[in-house]
Amino acid sequence: MRWSWRIGKLFGIDVAVHATFLLLLAWVALSGYFKDNRIEDALWGVGLTLAVFASVVVHELGHALTARRFGIGTRDITLLPIGGVARLERMPEQPSHELAVAAAGPLVSFALAGVLAAVAQVTAGPVAPAGPFGNLPVVTQLAQINLILAVFNLLPAFPMDGGRILRAFLAWRGDYVRATRTAASIGQAIAMGLGLLGLFSNPLLVLVAMFVWMGAASEASAVEARALLDGLPVTAAMMTDFHTLSPDDSLERAARLLLQGSQVDFPVVDDRGELVGVLTRDRLVGSLKAGGPTSLVGSVMVPEALSVDASASLHAVALQLQATGSRVIAVVDRGRIRGLVTLENLGEVVALRRAVPSWRSKSSPAVRPGP
Questions:
Q1: pLDDT tens sequence across 164-191
Q2: Distances in Å between the alpha carbon of 137 and those of 57, 134, 229, 277?
Q3: Do 247 and 214 lie in a common domain?
Q4: 238 and 204 in one domain?
């Protein structure tokens, strides 16, 4: 996620903050200070906000660690002004798994609210300045906030937790794509209500409504795309007219190839024609600036090149690209590269299947993997 900075790692998962989160802290600090021109109020506001978002991280860890039990990794957890986002490598495909992953976050928030409420009964602790929850001990305020966080996330506003729980129940009884469309429509209807409510009460609700509306549309589109790719072989989308590079080629030659056509990522093969790496456009441009055009491809290429067997399905390829965050994958047959699949290729197949649902690409012709 752009404009995000990593601040630590929990259970092997990176935790990051988005730049807009810093703006939220600045706004909280200024609001607290100008209320009575007291620096103490500003510090209390920032401290309470950080404590709330620590609870949000725990909430997101509930999703991430539950997903891990089903073999699904989490790229990172990013804090935004409207909450946190745990970016899973892929969404659970079984309704029971999605139900467990979606419900884990609110359950963790309910449990945290209960623990904090119990602590508040034993020790009152310091009292924060007057705010939305009144002059209450900090622990009590955090308990109430976690309770609100859990209840709010259970709203059936897809793609929030409650919406995903709704989609899981609908998918149990019917088609997954249709269940997603229904949950997305309900989510967008709730987003409209939240947006209208936010216009007359809390502007933050407008941001949440925008997030829900766009998230629901994006999720519905992604699920439909995966359904359109299902059942197709990787040869239906792979690009067969492409250039390869040798580790001994210069970056000057790679730059010429970049300018001559539309290919932006270049497989790197050794003398036997076997894949040994990939040179991406970003790596090429950055290396040209750092080392100049005479630098060798082998010294700057990414050695961990993604590859799949020519017998793989497009659905599996799409999942692998999503899980790794890559934009290109090589198709290999008996150790030799046969083609490339990019995110653009997948988008073109989806567009063709939408236009002609029965469309299926013929087997790919012989490949000319060279300049």
A1: 999 999 998 888 888 999 999 999 999 9
A2: 22, 9, 54, 57
A3: no
A4: no
